[in-house]
Structures are given as C-alpha cells and as structure tokens.
Design a protein that fits this description.
Blueprint: H1 3-19, E1 23-32, E2 35-43, H2 50-66, E3 75-80, H3 91-96, E4 101-106, E5 111-119, E6 123-128, E7 137-142, E8 146-151, H4 166-172, E9 176-181
Parallel strand pairs: 2-3
Antiparallel strand pairs: 1-2, 3-9, 4-5, 4-8, 5-6, 6-7
Helix pairs in contact: 1-2
C-alpha cells in the first residue's frame, strides 16, 4: 500500500475508530487473488470483543462506500484485534502487556524473554525468569535498547493457571469480522 493511500485511509478511519473508544493500530492492504484485502487492527486497554469488531466493521464499511479511498477494485474488509502474540511498538502496548512475558530483541543483538512489570515513557521494568532453580532477576530496559518486542503466549504460568480474564480470552482468539465489498455493486457477498 502506498504511503499516500495508507495516510489517507488512516486520516479517514482514525476519527471513526477513536469515537468508538478504540485505537487504530494497523491498516494493511494486500492482494488475495483478484481482490484486495483491507485489514484493520483495533485495540483498547480492555481488549476488543467480537461485537466491537463487528460494529467497527459496519461503520468502516459505510464510510468507505461513501468515499473513493479504496478505488474501483473489489476488496475484502477485515476488522480484527492484534491477536495473542501482538507486537509491542508503542508505550500503550507495553502498558497493556504489564504482567505478561515478552520476547525482546535488543539493538545489541541479544534476545531475552522477560515479564513486563511496569512501563513508562523511557522504558520498562522487567523480570528475567530464573533458569534451573535460579531466582528471577530485575532489569531496567530502555526503549532505545529495544529493536523489536512481541508478547509471548504462556500455557502453564502457575499464578494464572485458573485465572481467565476477558483480556486473556481476547488475546487467545483473534476474533475478526469480515465484509466483502465490490465497488461495482456495493453488495456484501456471502
């Protein structure tokens, strides 16, 4: 997707998504055969439920039908949450991942897995799990040190073994709502 189209779509859709108390995390247009796929990723501090994705999908669909932002070609609209292994690139992502394990690739070339304890404007306070009976160690990691970061899925965390929250349920399932559009007839396909 060209920067111009990406910027135009973001400018068009961000106010709509924000009005629903959600953050517009990502916009991606890719090819799927003869059609294009417009994938919109939304999130919030409380996570995103399927109903919210459906509501955003309907509103985005109406807005795009009224504009020429997607051009004349057919496209499939997909509105989704970031999923279980979401990338962390902004402060709000790290704050939402507090208490979770993250895989961090550092600019130095090192890679580590750490539990995010706290995130502020400068970086994160993290706990590096102990190996072979050793105690965990605390470490401060500045955002300037981090090249890439991604939430890690934990299947057998002892403290959270019987805890299922609405946020963790949203993280495990990558719920999405899909509309298919053709600018030629503006009808939903099955």
């Amino acid at each position: 997707m060209s920067t111009t189209q990406s910027d135009r779509l973001r400018g068009l859709l961000e106010p709509l998504v924000s009005a629903k108390d959600l953050d517009l995390e990502e916009i991606e247009v890719t090819r799927a055969g003869r059609r294009r796929v417009l994938r919109i990723v939304v999130d919030s501090d409380e996570g995103v439920e399927l109903d919210a994705c459906a509501e955003v999908s309907r509103a985005v669909s109406e807005l795009l039908d009224e504009s020429d932002a997607m051009g004349e070609e057919e496209y499939v609209l997909e509105v989704t949450s970031p999923g279980a292994e979401r990338p962390l690139s902004e402060l709000r992502h790290y704050q939402r991942a507090t208490g979770r394990l993250a895989r961090l690739q550092l600019h130095s070339g090192d890679e580590l897995v750490a539990r995010i304890l706290k995130a502020d404007d400068d970086g994160i306070d993290a706990e590096i799990p102990g190996v072979k009976g050793r105690k965990p160690t605390a470490r401060r990691i500045g955002f300037a040190e981090i090249d890439k970061a991604r939430v890690e899925i934990e299947f057998n965390r002892k403290e959270a073994k019987n805890e299922i929250t609405a946020d963790s349920e949203n993280d495990i399932s990558d719920d999405s709502d899909i509309d298919r559009h053709s600018d030629n007839d503006n009808e939903e396909e099955a």
